[in-house]
DUF5689 domain-containing protein
Amino acid sequence: MTLFVNKSIYILIILLFTSCISNDDFETPEIVINQPQIEGDIISIQSILEALKQAQNKDGEHAKIYFEETHSLLEGFVVSDDRHGNFFKQLVIQDNFKNPISGIRLMIDVNPLYVSYELGQKVTIRLDELTLGIENGVPTLGVLNQNSIIAIPAFKRDIHIIRSLEIEQPIPKTIQISDLSEAHINQLIALENVQFVEEEVFDERRNTYASAATDLYTGDRLIENCISELSTVVSTSTYASFKGFPLPKQSGNLSGILTKNYYGDAYNIILNSPLSVNFTDEKRCERSYLACEGQTANDTLVFFQNFTGVKTKDLEALGWINQNVTGGVLDYAIGKFGQDSYASITGFKSRESVYEVWLITPEIDMTMTTEENLTLDIQAVYDNGNILSVWVTNDYTDAIKTATWVRLDAFIPRGPLNSFGSMTPTGPIALNCLEGKIRIGFKYQGGEPGVTTRYHLDNIKITGK
């Protein structure tokens, strides 16, 4: 449902610049550009976003607000820059050049925009005849076309967008990956002490911003915080001038616009420029792995599963946890080739733009043995990126997210892009510093389109003395 907003009419006055010839020598005239004087009610970005929320609460998530004869004006600072091709026909505007409270995306059918609207330039937007709603998961201002919001026509942009003489250097708002939220959407943010994950940086197929064979419209690359190891996505257009630049191997800080992916269900960061990545620390931050010593050969079987005779529906009854924690339906399934059975997963054709899926073993009792080791076999199929990792916990209760997980230094084999790789042994991985009852977790994290590598897991075994 579209909400129509009406208020009393005001006269709009625009004072144009003037110039004159000061003497008979016809010197270059002095150009005097006067600050536009605009009449109307100036309202904040935050106020119209709150009005949109009210409309959504009343009429549902697809509700929109149409401005008609309100003579309302919106002010803000441009924080997006399309000179490198990473933005297209849109301006991201926030309410202040520093410490912003809110931001909005403005769609304009003009490319490029940076020649008219500089980074940090203050602009005023006439809201009448424009519509506010959610597109691709983010608040968007433009023209209503049926039930979608499209770009303002080029011939109308000067009617709706008035440039100010004020230009400020935008100061990114520093936050943590754990703090990413709707409150920071359409704002210029900075993340400190981060790096691109090693699975991207050291993978010759994916170690650029957006020039991999699997990058259809965007290249989505994971960055992680060096301390929390939480990750998020840096998304780069395949039309960006720097799409073929290699991902920096160092660590440091980066800034970009917080937005969402095409489907509106996952946070993305979009860079204004490759210079937005300031990775000056030559040393990468090391991932923390379980550090147990000793990998001796042992003959006491503590746990074993080769999935022979097991069906997917049997996993829960056998104590396994098979869960998609991002809310999708993709999960592990039992596959079979000849007489060999295995746990299998692939995001291909899942239509899930982001997924994190766990397969977790039943509880394994380590109290009766010592010098335990883990081994298993892994096969990578149609490999377009490494998105499998192996973890362990000894405090699992009833939720994946509340358990304390420690990554295992497990070798994940690489496979061919267009066929099957070989089933490859992994381990032994020492577990002898763990006590009590443990669970091993296999985390599959990616998104379609993007990395959708298929994995087969088999012969998962723990031995001890």
